Prior knowledge:
alpha+beta; Glutaredoxin; 2 domains; 47% helix
Amino acid sequence: MDPSAGVRSCAYIFKKLNQLYTPRMEYRQVPRDGIRRVVCAIFSVWLLCNVQIVRAETGAVLVMFDQDDCPYCDRWRAEIGVVYHKTPEGRRAPLRSIDLHAALPSDLPGLRSASYSPVFVLWQNGREIGRIQGYPGEDFFWPMLGDLLAQLDEPA
Length: 156
């Protein structure tokens, strides 16, 4: 699915909603802020559906163990995290962040915890494919992730 199609359809919905609530309405007029909230909610649902479709196609997810006050986690978020979901790697293995000190999620049975952060675990179909321990910097992270992604089973 073309991601820009969702943006265009969201813009179309926003335009139609604005036409519905014109300034001529005097009583029960929905403020424009309310319209924006509706559009944002619709867009959020669309985005979540697309993430679920991608996850269903590959069955893979990149689990990031992180914690508060972690300078390497903050650096990863600033350098990689802001664009990860837009990359082919991010579409193939969507990111899932887990607090290092929280209980492990029940939908990832067999996932081993990490001792420090950040740790990136590539997970597919109930098994761990591999790990990247720590954040070595942007120049090293992408090739390391590429090596892990090359080990993924292709969707049937």
